[in-house]
Structure formats: C-alpha cells, structure tokens
Amino acid sequence: MRTRRDRKFQLWDMLSQFVFLGGALAANLPLTTDANCNCYRTNATTSNYFAHHLFFDFRNLPQYARVPPLIGDPDGNTQAAVASSYFSLPQWTSYWAAQNWNNSEMMRMNNSDLSGSDATVLMVNSPNNVYVDRDRDPRPASQTHLVMRTARLAAGFQTVAEIESVSTGFRFLSIRMLARTRGPPGAITAMFTYRPPAGPLPVQEADLEIRTRDPENAVQYTNQPSWNADGDIPAATRNTTMPRGSRWTGWAHYRLDWTPYLSTWYVNGQFASSIAFQAPRDPAQVILNSWSDGGSWSGNMTANATAAMQIQWIEMVFNNTDPVYTKFGSCKNVCSIDETHVVGTPVLMPSGGDIPLSSLPRLVAATYDIWDIEAAILVQQYVKDHEATFEIKKVPPDSDHRSPSEVSVCRHYA
C-alpha cells in the first residue's frame, strides 16, 4: 500500500516538472532596464507579480577587496567601523546595514523558554566581519565576492556577521543569491525574512539555513516558530538534500519565494521545498547572517576556527509597504529576471496587463479549510489567472473511510 510519504513525493515530482520555464525563450526576449518595467513576473508554477527589483553585484569590486583582521575583544567588535568604503556608499547604505548587537541579554536570562536560545557562548555581531574579498580559487568564478565571517576566538566569544535590510516593509518577494558556505562544524549561514514577535504575536520568519555540522548537501527550510512549550513543531520545517549532487561548499543559486500563504525554496533552478504552515503574512525585513553561539542548534566551533558565507550577488523582486515604494498605474510592461540571459538585467515579456500596481502586495488571497499542508500547497501551486476559483477534493491519507475534504481558493485584486 502506498504511504502518505509516497504520495507526497509523487506530488512534488509532478509539480517540479513545471517550476522553471526559462531557456529557449530567454534568448528571444529583449534586455531592458528597471525604468521600463511596471512590474515583474516570476516563473514558478503559479506566476506571482512584484512591483520592484533590486540587484547587488559583488563580483567586480577589486578596489574594495580587503580582509580585515579579526578583533580579539567583544567591545572592539561592537565598535568596529565598516571594513571598506564600499559599505559607506549609498548603493549599500540605502538598503543594508551591518549589525553590531550581541546576545549577552539572552545569556543573562539563562532560560531558553523565555529567550528562545540555549547559547553557551557570547556572540557579538561586527561590521568588521562583512567585507569584500578576492576569489582565490584556481579558476575563479568572479574577481570578488561578499564575505560574511564568523570565528570562535581564543578569548572565549564568537564574532559573527549579519546584514539586515533597512526596510522593514517587504511584503512578499522572490529573493535569490549565488553563494557558498565554507568552514568547520559549528556555524550557521542563513537567508531569511523576519518580523519580530510583538506581544502575544509570534515571530514571522521564512528561513533558509545551512549548518556546517551537517552533510554538505543538507539544507533546512523553516517557517518560524519551529518550537513551542510542547516541543518541536514538525510541520514548520523541512530538511532537504540539495539537487543533482550540489553541495553548499560550492557555488549554488538559492531562491526563496515568499508569497501569500506559502514559502517556496529552490536550489540551482530546482524545486527544493514548500511550506504553507505558518507562512509569514505581515511586512518584514530581509536578513542574511553567519553565526554560532555554542547552542544545540549551531553546535560549538573549535577555538580559532573560522567559517563564512561567500556571496557573488543578491537579487530580489518584491512588494513593499514603505511609502517610498508606492507605485501607481497598472502593470502594462511586465518584465522577468528569470527569463534573462544576463543576471541582474531584466527582460521585457511579450505582453503586459491591467493589474493595478496598488494591488500587488495582496495579489493572491485565499480562504480554505484544510486537513493537511500538502492540500494547501497543491492549491497554491495551481491557482491560475485572476478571479479563478478551484475546488480540490481528497481523501485524508490517514483514513480511507472519511469523507473527502474540500479546499477552495480564490485569487483576486481586492
């Protein structure tokens, strides 16, 4: 008898065949600039529309390449200046900020139920750990890349790196990076959306995380929170294997699509995972980091050991609730960053539409009564053009005798 697990993998094998539609089409589409694009359409099974595009390219910055020496005391890390003048340029400071906070308050609490951390090591963020370095490979993929470094120092603390978006108003996006992780066990590298908890409301967060203690093809995806007072929340997390022999020690293309009711991840153009449970809803930041705190999640790094996430570029299309991102009109000129043959440069798609730009942050709305996550994922993947309604009936996999559940999803521009 086929199990629920068998049906799950059969479902995703079917869906993954339709996820990426680029290739031959890309060569025939004209390159353009963001000034000519009213909106951007992504190439997942269900197309999503976004109003804005950003591209951060770290591949050709030799004038800023410099490896700053590690700073041996916590205060020095907190007070450190940026590693080079690149991080004082408007094209960086308008969008990103390197952090200098530490976890001393959480450690003083000494209560993981309250702090959400079982750290055993002081962890100090430092702008000194975010820098541009030359690619020193025998056959380099680029001249330079961004480095986010973490190190366990002899003084007994962990120096770490984190960049946060200046904007806290991202509401749905598709973010990608070309990156790799290097270093010994005990470190975490990550890319995620983040909205902090507020009173009784829990954190909203869609994570991509790599643990250097794990096999080199293992990546974890989560819609936080992943635990509560009763223990772990299995529905919040997927542990996956990178496709086609890829390893996180090598360059890989990572992508997170945060859309209404769903977080979806891809690696090197291949579907990796999708989670509808606890998908973020409200405006959030984008964060990338490289860290360790000696806790049960990261593990302990050996003294004087160093790990890093190296990034060639970051790209995103997104909607944003900040007033500065307000756009009017309709989506006449539809562009794509998926169908282009020049990374970072959009192409103009054959035809646009009359989608009001003001509606993009809430382009897909859904109401459903579901019995399992897979049903919600199936619906989200197959919602088609606007004002379409679908009903899906399935027999719950844990029983062959119960009546089918019904799922209805409506896509609209309200």
From TrEMBL:
Domain of life the protein comes from: Eukaryota
Phosphoprotein found in the keyword field: no
An example Gene Ontology biological process: carbohydrate metabolic process
CDD domains in the cross-refs: Glyco_hydrolase_16 (cd00413)
Gene3D superfamilies: 2.60.120.200
PROSITE patterns (UniProt xref): GH16_2 (PS51762)
InterPro entries: Beta-glucanase-like, ConA-like_dom_sf
Protein name (database record): GH16 domain-containing protein
Organism from which the protein derives: Thyridium curvatum
Organism lineage: Eukaryota, Fungi, Dikarya, Ascomycota, Pezizomycotina
